[in-house]
Amino acid sequence: LMIAIEKTGYQDKVRLGMDVAASEFYHEGKYSIFGTDRPSLSSEELLAVYQKWSDQYPIVTIEDPFDEDDWSAFAAMTDSIGDEVQIVGDDLTVTNTERITKAQELKACNGLLLKLNQIGTVTEAIQAFQSARKAGWGVMISHRSGETEDTSIADFAVGLGTGQIKSGAPCRSERTAKYNQLLRIEEEIGPDAKYAGKNFRA
Predict the structure, then answer these.
(1) How many CB atoms neighbour CB 121 within 10 A?
(2) How many whole angstroms separate alpha carbon 135 and alpha carbon 181?
(3) Over the stretch 91-110, which tens digit does the pLDDT of each residue have?
(4) Pairing mode, if any, of strands 26-27 and 86-89?
(5) Are 61 and 35 spatial neighbours (Cβ–Cβ below 8 Å)?
(6) Of 38, 94, 128, 192, which sits 20 to 30 A from 12 (CA to CA)?
(7) What is the three-class DSSP state of 129?
(8) Residues near 9 by beta carbon (within 8 Å), at least 6 away in sequence
(9) pLDDT (tens digit per residue) in 112-153
(10) pTM exceeds 0.90
(11) CB distance 86 to 62 below 8 Å
(12) 89, 164, 194 from 187: Cα distances, Å
């Protein structure tokens, strides 16, 4: 991936994000990140992998690096590299106010994946956003599996000023619809539109 980025000449502009979904390869207290034919890793060993990668590559955000109930590992990672890398809770927080509060108390992450139809109502989604912002977290508005061409999450991303949206690679219409809506919003706002860029967490 880095070779491709360098060949295009965008190495000074492109930054990387990861959605690890670690709960999917977490079994009996270990992480089988390298497949079943190699030894599984403890939380501490997996953290060391992330630390190495963040040193080697321009990674700015990592989502769900550990199992959804591995709170201590999340907290250790946020303490270790959280100043440089956004540690996003998705399975960890599931846009649930109680789990968000617990994550804030434990300093388990510093970023919220906000799924509007996961929490229940628009009001609750906005409250979750406000809670995250008050804690100094970044907020990433996200699509979900089974997504349609509805573009409302693009409007929410701009309206709330999250600076981040997760809609997937622009390879299908329900994804490009969101990006096209962002372009229309930018066109409507005109010169007052601001691209978050490196300040996407602010």
Answers:
(1) 10
(2) 29
(3) 999 988 899 999 999 999 99
(4) unpaired
(5) no
(6) 192
(7) helix
(8) none
(9) 999 988 877 899 999 999 999 999 999 999 998 888 999 999
(10) yes
(11) yes
(12) 32, 18, 11
